[in-house]
TrEMBL record:
Keywords: Glycosidase, Hydrolase, Lipid metabolism, Signal, Sphingolipid metabolism. This is Glucosylceramidase. Its EC number is 3.2.1.45. One of its GO terms (molecular function) is galactosylceramidase activity. It comes from Coilia grayii (Gray's grenadier anchovy).
Amino acid sequence: MGLTTLLFVVLIGTSTTSGGMCCAGKDDCLARNFGHGSVVCECNASHCDSVGSVKLPPVGQFLSFLSSKAGSRLVRGQGTVLQNSTGAALRLTIVPYQKYQRIKGFGGAMTDAAAINILSLSGGTQDQLLRQYFAPEGIAYSVVRVPMASCDFSTRLYTYADSAGDYSLTNFTLSAEDTEMKIPLIQKAQAMSPQPLSLLASAWSAPAWMKTSGALIGKGTLKGHPGGKEYKTWAHYYVRFLEEYRKFNLSFWAVTTGNEPSAGQMTNYSFQALGFTPETQRDWVIMDLGPALHASPFADTRVIILDDNRLLLPHWAKVVLSDVRAARYIHGIGVHWYLNKLVPAELSLGTTHHVFPEYFLFGTEACAGWSPLDRGVKLGSWERAEDYAHDIIEDLNHYVTGWTDWNLALDLGGGPNWVKNFVDSPIIVDEKKDVFYKQPTFYSLAHFSKFLLEGSLRVGVSSSKASALESSAFIRPDGAVVLVILNRSEEHIPFEIWYPEVGFIPMDAAARSILTVVWATQ
């Protein structure tokens, strides 16, 4: 068989224009059904499904990638762009002159729990898991959130400066969780990644001796007031953290002003927190954190405020960013997805962007299984994949520049978590079998992270009529157009995509599916 013929057979065998499952092979999903509505894909040291490297087709052709409740997982399709309309009742028109925000990236958090679970696997399976997220054949994660010391997804309570009264931070020391678990795994991920990873640091609590409560957990703030010794020491703590990680050749793209500052103002809050009001956060940035970073070797590290639920917007941003003394040190606003249903995206994200367009919005945390009504791990839940895709599309369509998932990996129980705050994760590890399961949420994220390169520009999409489809469109730095479509309905929906410079793309959105379509324009 000649090389040309062989390539033709391979392409036909692994591609489809109808979105059906492709042939059996080493890159296919080993599906497992645990009774939660759809399947997971099982992986071990020697086998894991992969979409592989995606090469842009020539002008006049398109690629599509389909995941569905029925069991498709990034199934590749290929077809020809038409010069005439198909006559479909529904048309999505790309509007390239409507230009919005640029994409930073997508990723997840290397918590203590994530590191424990990854390291519980054999060396070969560990590498396989990291490749799924970070290697070229994986889903191109470019952001890793790193907790500064412990959070609830740890097995113990600690900070890096637990010696009472150590205002000079003489005894500041990274934990074994950092040096023996998180840092080696981040270094491995970086070695696999074709681009530098953007590390994002968030602290849950200051040392107990700095706080009004004298405890890491529950309601409590820093003692004193911004400009005072506790606030200055807390700012210095950030610089020391960056210094220690730099010794391992890891530099941070950004730090947040602290995870969920509203939690530290709640009575009976059950795990690590540090309370700030927008006013005290503003003044701490003005007097302490901003000057400390500016005077350090980390002056280029981005500062992201809020790092909390978007329902606090636009008020929080207005308080902090309306003061030019704080605003000059700040670059972005971090949002969590919890309680999003309580406030419309346009009212929170949209208003914030329109008032402060020079500051980027960035999704810093999300997870499924957090609600008391729908708690913990559900292997194969397609509804959770749809929740992810819906939230990402809604965020992107309201000026958010990236989206960070929570734990990169959890165990079958949704932990470990010292306070038993068990949730779900896109990858679930079964240590006893030395396997891991890629949840539908993994593929939901992949439909964005794999195809939206850093620097991709969101552009307009108009629909010829109302439909169940949700969508967001982008032009990448390489000139390719990416359209991501979510169909949460039970109906198969035929439609066409029109990009005026190229032509018409005939397409189908399967019932309960996520679809990414990619094509070249030059």
